[in-house]
Chalcone-flavonone isomerase family protein (Parasponia andersonii), 300 residues
Amino acid sequence: MFGAEANCRLIWVQSPIVSGNCISKPRICFLKTKPKNPSLLLDLSQTHYYSSIFLSPFSLHFTPPNKNTTPTHFSLNASSSTSVGSAEYTEEPATKVKFQATLNLPGFSSSLSLLGTANATTIPGFREKVFAIVGVKVYAAAFYVNPAVCSKLDSWKGRSAAEILEDSSLFSSIFQTALEKSLQIVLVRDVDGKTFWDALGDAISPRIKSPTPVDESALSTFRSIFQGRPLKKGTFIFLTWLDPSKMLVSVSSDGLPSSVDATIESGNVTTSLFDVFFGGTPVSPTLKSSVANGIATILK
């Protein structure tokens, strides 16, 4: 996802780390191996430096026992969704964020239907020399599609979720379809806008081998949305692909957005962003898995 495969894991640490004569602030840590007891003090010589909200699947987090973090999946029929509390909403169990079963967004007229969710599998990274973390979730995510997308997936009917996950061509077909699909990110803690963009930009940029002036302009526009903008807990971020080369970005700290913050028109940028979440090495494997489960249910 971020270049060479890393042989390390992101480990949730339950307490600050003592290093030398100081106690560090809780931050982020990568271990080559997962300790038997993650609350124990860590040997910093075993850590790898990294800085990103969006981490690779080779840095999968360790979930403390007895916590239900299984992602939910859904049918495009809201009445049959596995929602908690209401057929109109589906609750992501780890963060308790509720996602609407259907929604309308600014910039286009089609309604979108919920296809899958996941809890926040990553936390912000910090450019520090001392590495420690606490098990803090940053965001919950959901993926929505124009219901007509599923009519383009007949060749995958009857396949299991595992088979869908192994077949990258299905997610490629979803992306290439000139129908709307949107990723909703809901922050469950405050995040600095620059930190958010730096992490997202660091995930996108390696996927664009030779950026064109159009790509550079699109990235600059994308960056300007977040630079200098505090992203408070509860902020909604929508990344909506209208077609393979055009994407809308909407950010709102007060529920669903009423306007579009920016339009990104670069095939390389939009493709790379989709690959960040739904490519061969997605930053949130649980989200991709949840979507695969949803698709398998719909295509039975």
